[in-house]
Amino acid sequence: QVQLVESGGGLVQPGGSLRLSCAASGSIFSIYAMGWYRQAPGKQRELVAAITSGGSTNYADSVKGRFTISRDNAKNTVALQMNSLKPEDTAVYYCYAQVPNVYWGQGTQVTVSS
């Protein structure tokens, strides 16, 4: 089993920044990919950003240039730096780890509002 613990969500004004963090623990030999999905009310869960153990990254078009994903393989952590936040970024953000089964965090709320 793998446990994922997220932190860093909250309320921010449009144009502001937040940093999400996620730490994986448990029966981990190696994690292939880690990343973040989000789900807004009434919408499907969507990929925000992902990063492999080799450092390859993938971003949703809607966040390119604003969000940056990073990873510490030694500590099994992943972070998402979110800048220039918009109201449409409001959602519950979920961390995931692929080992190769996919495990999920409990989710953290991000609200962008004035």
What does this structure look like?
With 114 residues, this protein is mostly beta strands. The chain is built from no helices and eleven strands. The strands form two sheets. Strands 2, 4, 5, 6, 9, 10 and 11 form a seven-stranded mixed sheet that branches. Strands 1-3-8-7 form a four-stranded antiparallel sheet, with no helix packed on it. A hairpin with a 6-residue loop joins strand 4 and strand 5.
Concise structural overview:
The chain has 114 residues and is mainly beta. The chain is built from no helices and 11 strands.
Main attributes of the structure:
single chain; seven-stranded mixed sheet; mainly beta; four-stranded antiparallel sheet; globular; 0% helix; 114 residues; 11 strands
Query: How many individual helices?
Result: 0
Mean pLDDT: 94
Low-confidence stretches are: none
Strand content: over 45%
- Biggest sheet, open or closed, and with what strands and sense? 7 strands, mixed
How is the secondary structure organized here?
Blueprint: E1 2-7, E2 10-12, E3 18-26, E4 33-39, E5 46-52, E6 57-59, E7 67-72, E8 77-82, E9 91-98, E10 102-104, E11 108-112
